[in-house]
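Re: the request from the purification team.
They wanted to know what the chain is likely to look like in 3D before they choose a buffer screen. I agreed to run a prediction and write the result into the notebook, where they can find it.
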Amino acid sequence: MEIADPVGAVLNGKNPELWTVAPDATVFEAIELMAAKNIGALLVVDGKRLHGIVSERDYTRKIVLQGRSSKTTQVRSIMTKEVICAQPSDSVETCIHVMSQSGIRHLPVIEGDDVTGIVSLGDLVRWIMSAQSVRIHQLEHYIAGTYPA
């Protein structure tokens, strides 16, 4: 595990289920699904086509703070339409940089026209922490002289 590893490797270590919502679903239905699956964002898809992404942040800023009803508002009216995406070959480091610069916490991973998954900032941080843990373990064994030749 390295920061230079492709984000596709991170996806391979995650649950392969991809949770999505239709653009005409209500915001309430989307939030209900996010709560049930303990996730912070859903991809908005119609068939296989990615239309946007909706997050808890969209809900709080575009429903709660504006006094709108989540039970009557459609996801399409609050989703982020210009979705920033990664390729499976993009490095973990590149993805963290893109997410930091863009102020986003969820990054869909696209290969061609297909969505292969989504990574969160937390997923990437856990990946880096695991890589650092492995490196520390290797260095400790090297220093102690017990590292295999």
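For the purification team: The chain has a mean pLDDT of 90.
Please add any questions underneath this entry.
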